[in-house]
Amino acid sequence: MSEYDWDPKTYLALMAEEVPDYHRLQDQLVVAASVHTSAKLILDLGIGSGLSAARVLDALPQATLVGIDNSHAMLAAAASSLPLRRFTPIEQRLEDPLPSGPYDLVISMLAIHHLDGPGKADLFSRIAGALRPGGRFVLADLVIPENPADMMTPIDGVEDKPSSLSDQLTWLTAAGLQPSVSWQHRDLAVINSTRPDQSTAHVKWPAAVKSQELPHS
Ligand SMILES: C[S@@+](CC[C@H](N)C(=O)[O-])C[C@H]1O[C@@H](n2cnc3c(N)ncnc32)[C@H](O)[C@@H]1O
């Protein structure tokens, strides 16, 4: 994605042009987030205008959501469209300390690829610290695909710093999370990570697996 001032009015048109599978990725984010049926408090990192958060809140009607973003315009659009009693907007950077939790669920779609490798690794460890034991982190984002021909999204190399799946799985594991890939299509992927709770901390989990692509719902 090229650099621009994020504008909620043109955002979907931009996604249609630069991330044609935006809605498929969002579907898979919602599928992965919905598994956490008892989630009460959610944190959305880079919530933008709230389009993905709205779908997650619809799927988890008992939950409230804190959304952070450093774009005032995008956050204002989220605040005007999401239900007031279920949404707390916070204008801040992903690099800043996360608003205090603990969270049952942390979600992020198409935002964390704006951080470089060390920035992602640092954020993953702060996410692990903000999650309740047993909580889950669902990351739906751009990745560097194994086959360069699968890179569909224009990357400017300045604002956009996607990493490979394997690097991100390594950083998530180093952060103390248990990650697995629930969906991948070309340069898009969804990674589910769980913070082990004490009762399962001793269990040796299998290495992260790449599941088959799920049918588009
Ligand atoms: C492609 S939009 C994704 C919005 C939303 N998550 C969605 O699913 O439609 C990326 C968002 O990440 C935000 N963002 C990018 N880098 C950020 C940073 N370092 N700190 C906070 N927000 C950031 C942008 O302002 C923008 O709203």
TrEMBL record:
InterPro entries the record matches: Methyltransf_25, SAM-dependent_MTases_sf
Domain Methyltransferase residues, every copy: 42-135
GO molecular function annotations of the record: methyltransferase activity
Keyword tags: Methyltransferase, Transferase
Membrane-crossing residue ranges in chain numbering: none
Pfam families assigned: Methyltransf_25
UniProt entry tagged with the keyword Hydrolase: no
Gene3D superfamilies reported for this sequence: Vaccinia Virus protein VP39
Keyword Magnesium: no
GO BP: any one term: methylation
Protein name: Class I SAM-dependent methyltransferase
Organism encoding this protein: Microlunatus elymi
